[in-house]
Amino acid sequence: MKNLNVELMTLSSLFTSIIIISNIIAGKLINIGPFILTLSILIYPLSYAIANIISEIYGTKISKKVIKAGFISSILLVIISFITFYFPPSPVFEYNEAYKIVFGSTPRIILASFLSYFAAQNVNIWIFNSLKSFFKIENLFFRNIISMIITQFIDSVVFVGISFYGKYDLQLLTNMILSQYLIKLLISILNSPIIAISVRQLKKRLILEH
User: Fold this and answer.
1) Is it the case that residue 64 has pLDDT exceeding 70?
2) pLDDT per residue over 158-205, tens digit each?
3) Which of 5, 67, 160, 161 has its CA at 20 to 30 Å from residue 174's CA atom?
């Protein structure tokens, strides 16, 4: 049980780190082929994979506590970002305007992240577990894909809409939402084997330690 507690701490730490890093880098837009995406798309879908692993091994209550911890970490990031943004710089610091440009959108992005985070993460856990408890579907790959089809759409619409509404025209916003959704969904599907392997290995350890 001791090793499993260590592994839960590791998974929780990874989850929280991904949430914080995603909030910081989400203000930068990149292109992957014709898709316009926020940079956070490279790592944020992993948070869903980790949440599903925790839920499958440790249960829904534990996974919700981890999601709550990620939320609290984001609140701390908002507070710290607000302080650093408005704190008077030293006269020798020549890059304050550039700093403001880079981090000026962070509070709005984190607000969008709050709303999309709670909506999508909790819907993901509910669907992922409901498919097993109500519909008796054990297959992790199938459950993950079904939950991702719905939750990644919710996440993309809420996050992009709140983060960038008013900064870009409707056509570009629509492009960004669809781009985010399709790429996140693809990454989530590719993550499914990782979830299945991780759950299988952790369950083996749980059996051995008992």
Assistant:
1) yes
2) 988 988 888 888 999 999 999 999 998 898 888 888 888 888 888 777
3) 67
The string of DSSP letters for 61-116 reads HHHHHHHHHHHHHHHHHHHHHHHHHHSPPPTT-TTHHHHHHHHTTHHHHHHHHHHH
Positive or negative: CA dihedral 179, 101, 117, 67: positive
Give, for 31, the enclosing helix (H) or strand (E): strand 29-32
What backbone torsions phi and psi does residue 119 show, to the nearest 5 degrees?
-65, -55
Confidence of residue 105 (pLDDT cuts 50, 70, 90): low
Contact 70, 47 (CB under 8 A): yes
Contact at 8 Å (CB) between 159 and 186? Answer: no
Number of domains in the chain: 1
Range of the domain at 74: 2-209
CA distances (Å), origin 156, targets 50, 160, 175, 177, 179 = 19, 6, 11, 5, 9
Where helices occur in 1-59 by DSSP H, the ranges are 2-25, 45-58
Q: 139, 206, 133, 160: which is closest to 44 by C-alpha? A: 160
Structure token pair of residue 177: 């939402």
- The CATH number of the domain holding residue 20 is 1.10.1760
